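Late entry, evening session. Most of the bench is empty. Finally got around to the prediction I had been postponing all week. Sequence below, unchanged from the version circulated by S.P.
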Amino acid sequence: MNIRLLTQKIPVGISQCAMGDPVRYNAGHKHSKICTRLLGRCFEYVPVCPEVAIGLGVPRQPIRLVKSDSSADAEVRVLGVEDPALDVTEPLKEYADSLVPELQKIRGYILMQNSPSCGLRKVRRYLPNGHSHDSEGMGVFAQRLREQFPDLPMEEVGRLNDSDIRENFLTRVFAYDAWFRYVENGDEEPRPARVIEFYSAYKYLLLAHHQLETRELGRLVGNARALPPREYARRVRGKLMEILAHPASRKDRANALMHSQGHLKAYLDKDERAELAALIEDYRRGFKPLSAVLTLIRHYLPRSPHHFIHSQVLLAAEPAELGLCDFR
């Protein structure tokens, strides 16, 4: 598996109001310049407004999450604020289910925060008497998508204003897209050899996100014959995406970069080894950007004849280098 830069836009689902379309309950929108002007450079969006799609119209009565009672396992439904008899819980779930064939080809989803249909986390929930109960809910449409596509990278529009969260989301979308281009591409059973090759190429990037879980994944990858090919690929994909969801720390990234340096030591002289080690340490301590280390390692890469180090996705262009993290 060779390192390749992004050559075409990746299909990503998005809440339609984030595109600037006036589809909210009050006929407004929540246009996100981060999504349209920045991430739009690499994403081909599939805009969806589930509330409009199920026939609520624009403008419309606002809806909210309502728990049947205050117990932890109480049923949660999506009801009208002005008319609690309006119950759109099942229509939202059914609409999400109906989108499954269309969304098979998307590689990420950006959802509107605080929405009773699309919010991913901390959506306010109410009791039947109208009193606020907590902010621990998840939008019904978003929850159904998560059930249908458990490994799909998903994030909220507002959180993407944070450059670290944005970089992590991009990393996951790039990996998910690469997996379906390289491993699960078509109707044929995924070949275990392709799964192993994919893991090998992502190994150091995974180490930068979570060392312990990457070692556990390595044991799963090495036991290919224990599972049918589709189940083997599904489990590896799920664990890989789970690992990448962990934010990469400077400490773990520096450790992965040191592993990369180890493959080059035999082809560097004393001064070059010292310079690279010092640069990695400066990155670990926050004095130098990741791009500086990657640039120097890539400068030395042609000296090594070993395919393993050349295949490492960790050394490919990161989101920041593609201009996808800084927005002004």
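Two things to note before I forget:
Residues 163-182 form the longest helix (20 residues).
The chain has 13 helices and eight strands.
Will write this up properly tomorrow.
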